[in-house]
């Protein structure tokens, strides 16, 4: 096909003879393309034929099924007619017979209904009742309503009320049994008469499954109900501990979680053994026990987490603490949490919105405090050494705060299994970091009018460079691009760098040019000496005050722009200056400026880049060409 396409393009503007040559040259390719098209056509036809055969077969199947259904309908109708004729042959009216049977059914249902209501009414349930007192009436009701949905429907309200009352007694008795045996605070091995205790557990569990049979379909949830009721006992115990610790001012939530895990393990073993001896449950239902318990355990941890968060909601760092604590708990938990997320309670709007608000407030308060101290937050922290001396990073109070703040938040966010919540936090951090860049811009604009700006400019630039590095490295794994954020910090650094470039090229060289164009020879030389002294002083300041990571970048930009400007100035000065002034200019370049830059590079203060080297070479070439002519 490609060969055909190529030939069509060639034939668009070809002459007659050219067309013939093109067609002749492409004959073999066209034949091959035609052969491929024929193969594709045959293959497609085979697929179509096969699909049509399958459709035809499906139609025949549907037709035969439709005929079978029609045949069954006819057969059923004929059967009804045959029954009706049989009734008529015996002198009976079919309608009357059906009515009699319906009456008998209704009387039977009425009798059963009255019997069940009588059983319910005669069963006195008080706070002192036990499940043993309810065992016989429950079995009587189950045997009466078994398989009769109509009867269940008629007695729905009675059965529901009776079930709820019985369930309260069951729960109370089960918890009392646990409490008397010390379960779940003790393991089964630590208790006395454990075998007898397990027999009692098996009996009360059997009663629970009988109770579940009162409602249709509830029997399938027997294990769920047993686990839920049993673990609720443990949950109440742990919540009481949380409330008590809060009142006493010593809420060790991690200890409560670890203890709850240990007690849940004890409870799981007891329930598992109790379920094993239950004869009313099938093996398939028993095999689901472990998965059900693990899922209920996650709900149990979630309820404790909600309770603790609500009681400590005013603590600004509560969510950060909880995130770390829950991750540590999850890593050391023997229960299966693979299909669950124990951080779910934190995702709820009530808590997640509060957490974000806390983080924004914490950031705002900290940044306001740092930036209120003028340039002090940009001062280097000499006590902090990051990396070896040659590659050490800049560390100021503001950069340390930002890096620690991002690291802490990112560590917490990585714990979340919910990507939407993660994205919300990352977007919030991005907005705050963008705000920080704007604040630093405002601070630097204010500092420009102060006498210390010649020193402060380097402090601000060093901090911005480090903040840009922090943003770049810390956000690499985030699901949100930091390109615009990095660009904002880079633009602010470039703006401050431009101020130093302007000082060299406009303040110093402009003043020198005015002197060269207006003063006498001695004044020109004096001004030139002063200008190059300040140029060298500025460049030396860069190697001293600029942070090592940004030093070479800054030096290369300054040197590149400086030598570009010197080229332009030299082209103008060589036509207006005397040989004495030009000779002095040559001396400043070759004996002063260039050797000092070479020396600074040799001592490891900066690494010369290609752009800076190129501009130095261009000035050198201009000056040597002029020198050779004069």
TrEMBL record:
Keywords: Coiled coil. This is RAD50-interacting protein 1. The keyword Coiled coil applies. Residues 34-89 form a coiled coil. It comes from the Eukaryota. The gene is Cni-Y49E10.21.
């Amino acid at each position: 096909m490609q060969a055909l396409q190529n030939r069509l393009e060639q034939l668009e503007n070809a002459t007659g003879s050219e067309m013939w040559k093109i067609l002749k040259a492409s004959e073999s390719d066209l034949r091959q393309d035609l052969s491929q098209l024929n193969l594709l056509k045959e293959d497609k036809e085979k697929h179509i034929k096969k699909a049509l055969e399958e459709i035809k077969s499906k139609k025949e199947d549907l037709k035969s099924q439709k005929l079978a259904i029609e045949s069954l309908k006819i057969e059923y109708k004929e059967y009804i007619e045959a029954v009706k004729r049989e009734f008529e042959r015996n002198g009976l009216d079919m309608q009357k017979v059906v009515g009699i049977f319906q009456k008998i059914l209704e009387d039977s249902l009425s009798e059963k209904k009255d019997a069940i209501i009588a059983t319910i009414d005669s069963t006195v349930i008080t706070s002192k009742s036990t499940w043993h007192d309810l065992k016989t009436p429950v079995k009587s009701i189950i045997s009466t309503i078994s398989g009769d949905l109509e009867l269940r429907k008629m007695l729905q309200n009675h059965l529901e009320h009776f079930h709820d009352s019985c369930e309260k007694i069951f729960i109370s008795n089960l918890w009392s049994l646990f409490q008397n045996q010390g379960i779940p605070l003790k393991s089964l091995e630590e208790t006395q008469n454990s075998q007898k205790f397990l027999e009692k557990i098996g009996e009360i569990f059997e009663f629970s499954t009988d109770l579940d049979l009162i409602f249709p379909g509830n029997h399938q949830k027997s294990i769920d109900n047993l686990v839920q009721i049993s673990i609720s006992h443990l949950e109440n115990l742990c919540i009481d501990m949380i409330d008590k610790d809060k009142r006493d001012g010593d809420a060790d939530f991690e200890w409560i979680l670890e203890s709850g895990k240990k007690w849940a393990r004890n409870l799981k073993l007891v329930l598992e053994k109790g379920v094993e001896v239950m004869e009313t449950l099938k093996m398939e239902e028993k095999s689901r026990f472990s998965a059900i318990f693990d899922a209920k355990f996650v709900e149990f941890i979630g309820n404790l987490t909600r309770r603790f968060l609500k009681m400590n909601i005013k603590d600004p760092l509560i969510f950060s603490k909880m995130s770390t604590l829950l991750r540590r708990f999850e890593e050391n938990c023997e229960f299966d949490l693979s299909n669950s997320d124990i951080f779910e309670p934190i995702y709820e709007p009530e808590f997640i919105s509060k957490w974000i608000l806390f983080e924004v407030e914490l950031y705002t308060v900290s940044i306001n405090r740092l930036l209120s101290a003028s340039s002090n937050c940009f001062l280097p922290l000499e006590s902090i050494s990051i990396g070896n001396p040659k590659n050490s990073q800049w560390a100021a109070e503001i950069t340390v705060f930002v890096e620690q703040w991002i690291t802490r938040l990112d560590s917490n966010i990585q714990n979340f299994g919910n990507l939407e919540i993660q994205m919300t936090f990352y977007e919030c951090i991005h907005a705050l970091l963008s705000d920080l860049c704007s604040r630093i811009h405002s601070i630097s604009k204010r500092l420009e009018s102060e006498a210390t700006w010649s020193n402060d400019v380097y402090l601000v630039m060093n901090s911005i460079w480090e903040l840009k590095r922090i943003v770049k490295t810390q956000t690499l794994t985030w699901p949100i691009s930091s390109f615009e954020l990095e660009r904002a910090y880079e633009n602010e650094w470039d703006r401050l760098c431009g101020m130093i470039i302007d000082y060299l090229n406009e303040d110093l060289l402009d003043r020198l040019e005015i002197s060269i164009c207006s003063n006498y020879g001695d004044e020109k030389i004096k001004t030139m000496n002063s200008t190059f002294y300040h140029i060298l002083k500025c460049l030396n300041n860069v190697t001293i005050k600029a942070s090592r990571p940004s030093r070479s970048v800054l030096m290369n930009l300054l040197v590149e722009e400086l030598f570009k400007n010197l080229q332009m100035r030299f082209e103008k000065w060589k036509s207006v200056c005397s040989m004495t002034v030009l000779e002095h200019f040559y001396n400043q370049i070759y004996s002063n400026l260039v050797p000092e830059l070479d020396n600074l590079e040799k001592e490891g203060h900066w690494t010369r880049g290609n752009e800076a080297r190129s501009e130095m070479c261009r000035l050198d070439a201009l000056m040597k060409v002029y020198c050779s002519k004069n």
